[in-house]
Design brief:
binds 5'-deoxyadenosine, alpha/beta, binds iron/sulfur cluster, globular
Length: about 500
C-alpha cells in the first residue's frame, strides 16, 4: 500500500466517524478488512469492533456471553477508570460479573500509594492462578498505578507468567486495542508508557450509579510531595478543556445524573497548563450553572493552591456541597517543609479560619501521615494540636509507607515501628472522638439526603448521603433511589445516622 492509499484510508475513517457521539457508534458497520484508523479515539472504536467479533465466536462456541470481573483497588480516580474499562467491556459484549473465580476475564485496576496495596495484588494473583488452572481460557489483566513501577512489571513477568495483559495509567484508553492483541497472541502483552501529554476523550464508560458520577477534570500531579509515588506513576499535570468537561456533565445530566464529583490529584491547580488558562473556581462557576445538576463535589484540594476566589464561589453556590477534603499530612511546619508540602502549620490554620468564616457549616476532612522519616515526639504533638484545633469531621490516617524512588525513601531516621504504632493509635482515637462529637451535633436537624441504594442489611431501609458526605439510613423503598429528599436526622451512630423522611 503506498502512502496515497494510506491517506485515503485515513480520510475514509475520518468521514466514517466524524461528528458521531460515542453512544451512537455503528460497530457492525466498521470495515475490519481495512487497516485501523490512526486517530484516537477512532482507532479504539475499530478495535472494539475486532473484539466484538471475538466475543461473537465465543458465544457461538459456548452458548453464553463471556463474563468479566473488574476489580478496583484504588482511589476515586481509579474507580472512574474502572468505569471506563467496564464501559469498553460492555461494548465488546462481556457480561459484568462480581466474582473472579468463574470469570472469563479478570482485570485488577491497581493502586500503589502504599506498599500494602502492592502486597494485596500479589496475594490475589496467587488465588487467581488456582482459578486459571481450572479455567485455562481465563484472561488475566493488570493495569493502574502499580504497573507504572518497573520493578513490579519485572516481578510479574518473572513470578506470575500466567498474567496475559499489563498496561499502565497513561494508555488505559488503548484497552480495546491491547485486548485484541491478547486474543491473537499467546505470550504476555505488556504496554507501559512513561508519561503522556495526550487526553483521549469520547470513549465508552459505564457509570456505577445512574444518578451520580465522577468526572475527571485533570490527570497527574506536579507537586512531588517527598513521600508520594503518585507523580511518578500518574505523570505530569494535564487538564481537560473546560468545554469537554461541561459537555460531558451536560450529557450525564440529560441521562439522569444529579450529582458529580470532579476528580483530580490537585484540583486547585486545574487549568494552569491549558492553552487558554482557566482557574478551578471559574470552572466550578460554569458547572454551577448547568441546569438539572443538583450537587457538585470535588477532590482533592491542596492547601497551598486553595484560592480566595474558590472560597467565594463555594460560599455563593447552592449546589457545591459544603465539604472540603483538605489533606494536612502533618501539623509540624518542620516536617511539612521536608515533605515538600509548601505550607506551614500557621498557613493551614489561617486557611481553615478563612473557609469557616465564609462557610460556618462546612465539613472539613483530611489525610494525615504518621511516622514520616525523622518525625519526633514534638512533630507528632503539632499534628495532634492541629487536629484538636480544626476539629475535622473525619480524617484518614495513614502509617508512612516507604515508596521506592521517592526522596523520602532514602531519608535516614525511619521511625521505629512501635513508636509509630503508639502515635497512630493516639491519633486515631482523637480523630474518632472529635468526628463522633461533630456528627452528633447534627442530630435533630433536617437535611437533604441523596438516596443511593436499598440498605444491604435491612430491606425496609434505604441509604443515602448528606451534602457533607455522611451516610444516613431511613425507612423507604426503591422509588426514592436517585432522589434528594428532606430527612430528619434522629439518631447518630458515630459516623452514620438513622433518620426519617419529612
Ligand atoms: N505513605 C503513607 N501515606 C501516603 N499517602 C501518600 N503517600 C503515602 C505514603 N508513602 C497518603 C497521603 C495522601 C493519601 C492519598 O495517601 O495522606 O493524601
Ligand atoms: Fe501525592 Fe502530593 Fe501529588 Fe497528592 S499532591 S498526589 S500527596 S504528590
Amino acid at each position: 500500500m503506498d502512502c496515497r492509499d494510506q491517506n485515503q484510508i485515513q480520510d475514509y475513517w475520518n468521514d466514517f466517524f466524524r461528528d458521531t457521539d460515542v453512544q451512537d457508534i455503528d460497530y457492525e458497520g466498521i470495515d475490519l478488512m481495512l487497516p485501523p484508523p490512526e486517530e484516537e479515539p477512532y482507532r479504539q472504536y475499530y478495535f472494539m469492533a475486532v473484539c466484538r467479533k471475538w466475543v461473537k465466536n465465543f458465544e457461538q462456541e459456548n452458548g453464553r456471553s463471556p463474563k468479566a470481573c473488574v476489580v478496583n483497588m484504588g482511589c476515586q480516580m481509579n474507580a472512574r477508570d474502572a468505569e471506563k474499562l467496564t464501559g469498553i467491556l460492555h461494548v465488546i459484549g462481556y457480561e459484568e460479573h462480581a466474582s473472579e473465580e468463574d470469570a472469563d476475564f479478570v482485570i485488577y485496576n491497581t493502586c500503589t500509594v502504599r506498599e500494602n496495596a502492592n502486597n494485596k495484588v500479589y496475594g490475589r494473583l496467587g488465588y487467581l492462578h488456582g482459578y486459571k488452572k481450572k479455567n485455562p481460557h481465563m484472561i488475566i489483566a493488570l493495569c493502574g498505578c502499580m504497573m507504572q513501577e518497573e520493578k513490579v512489571v519485572a516481578k510479574i513477568k518473572k513470578s506470575y507468567p500466567f498474567v496475559d495483559l499489563i498496561f499502565g495509567t497513561h494508555n488505559i484508553f488503548k484497552f480495546a486495542e491491547l485486548l485484541a492483541q491478547v486474543y491473537e497472541q499467546s505470550s504476555m502483552v505488556v504496554d507501559i508508557w512513561e508519561d503522556t501529554t495526550q487526553i483521549v476523550e469520547q470513549l465508552p464508560n459505564e457509570r456505577k450509579y445512574p444518578f451520580k458520577s465522577g468526572v475527571n477534570i485533570m490527570f497527574g500531579c506536579n507537586n512531588f510531595c517527598s513521600y508520594c509515588i503518585v507523580p511518578y506513576v500518574r505523570g505530569r499535570e494535564r487538564s481537560r478543556k473546560p468545554e469537554e468537561i461541561i459537555s460531558e456533565i451536560k450529557r450525564f445530566v440529560a441521562d439522569g445524573v444529579i450529582e458529580v464529583m470532579l476528580l483530580g490529584q490537585n484540583v486547585n491547580s486545574y487549568g494552569k497548563n491549558l492553552d487558554e488558562p482557566v482557574t478551578f473556581a471559574q470552572l466550578l462557576s460554569e458547572i454551577d450553572q448547568i441546569e438539572g445538576l443538583e450537587r457538585i463535589r470535588f477532590m482533592t484540594s491542596h492547601p497551598k493552591d486553595l484560592s480566595d476566589e474558590l472560597i467565594e464561589v463555594m460560599a455563593k453556590s447552592k449546589k457545591i456541597c459544603r465539604h472540603l477534603h483538605l489533606p494536612l499530612q502533618s501539623g509540624s511546619s518542620r516536617l511539612l517543609k521536608i515533605m515538600n508540602r509548601r505550607y506551614t502549620k500557621e498557613h493551614y490554620l489561617e486557611l481553615v479560619d478563612k473557609i469557616r468564616t465564609a462557610m460556618p457549616d462546612i465539613a472539613l476532612t483530611t489525610d494525615i501521615i504518621v511516622g514520616f522519616p525523622g518525625e519526633t515526639e514534638e512533630d507528632f504533638e503539632e499534628t495532634m494540636d492541629v487536629v484538636r484545633r480544626v476539629q475535622y469531621d473525619s480524617a484518614f490516617t495513614f502509617i508512612y509507607s516507604k515508596r521506592t524512588g521517592t526522596p523520602a525513601a532514602s531519608m535516614e531516621d525511619q521511625v521505629p515501628a512501635d513508636v509509630v504504632k503508639r502515635w497512630f493509635d493516639r491519633l486515631l482515637k482523637e480523630v474518632q472522638t472529635i468526628a463522633a462529637k461533630k456528627a452528633d451535633a447534627l442530630t435533630g436537624q433536617t437535611m437533604d439526603v441523596l438516596v443511593e441504594s436499598v440498605n444491604h442489611q435491612d430491606a425496609s431501609l434505604v441509604t443515602g448521603r448528606l451534602g457533607n458526605n455522611s451516610v444516613v439510613h431511613l425507612p423507604g423503598d426503591e422509588s426514592l433511589i436517585g432522589k434528594i429528599v428532606k430527612v430528619k436526622l434522629e439518631e447518630c451512630k458515630g459516623f452514620y445516622y438513622y433518620g426519617r423522611l419529612i
